[in-house]
Amino acid sequence: VMFTYGKDHTFTHRGDVEALGAKGIAASFDFGHNALGDNTEYRGSYIREHAFTQIPMLSELMGPLVKKADITGRLAGTDASIYISENAYVDTINIMGNAQLSGNVVSQYNQVDDDNKPRLTALTFGVKADENGQSTNQADNAFKFSYDDNIVGLNNLSLQLAGGTTQFSGHHAIYEAHVASGASLISSSTYQINPDGAFINE
Known about the structure:
By secondary structure, this protein is mostly beta strands. It has strands spanning 2-3, 9-13, 16-19, 25-29, 42-44, 47-50, 53-54, 66-71, 74-77, 80-84, 90-95, 100-102, 105-107, 121-125, 127-129, 135-139, 144-147, 151-161, 164-168, 171-179, 183-187, 190-193, 199-201. The strands form five sheets. Strands 1, 2, 4, 8, 10, 11, 13, 14, 18, 20, 22 and 23 form a twelve-stranded parallel beta sheet that branches. Strands 3-9-12 form a three-stranded parallel beta sheet, with no helix packed on it. The protein has a three-stranded antiparallel beta sheet with strand order 5-6-7, with no helix packed on it.
């Protein structure tokens, strides 16, 4: 599954996506590069450059490539289950009941807003899904999720545990983490937190 241009898309995944060949990525959010060379023109979420100099922004770039990705299915990739490139901003990824991830979660996005604050991707675990597999604003106290791979996004990924029990192993480099009251994290992982972020356990 690939999202490659525009803004404010939504992604609701309830099925099974796997990319188990060489360099396989199950869900990719990536504007890619200009076939004529990035110095000709380079585009991405809140990015438009010519000769590596900022030029007037287009309306279709003024927003996240994907506003919300709701995952209740399986994503399996050799290189990554979820990949966010350096030019693609994803606002929120919700990992909800029955979801399965196999392969690293990777974000290379590293941009700031007009107030010089980082544009972070909320990677949430334990939000309740409705009957259509779309996220609600409620915590799912019955949520149980286990993940053995790595989460890599030191400048972009905000780890949010909203409800239920999440179990991690692996090595995680993230901007920040927040474990809400009522949510449980069981972990044998190592964590690297951005110097401007924090790990908060309520």
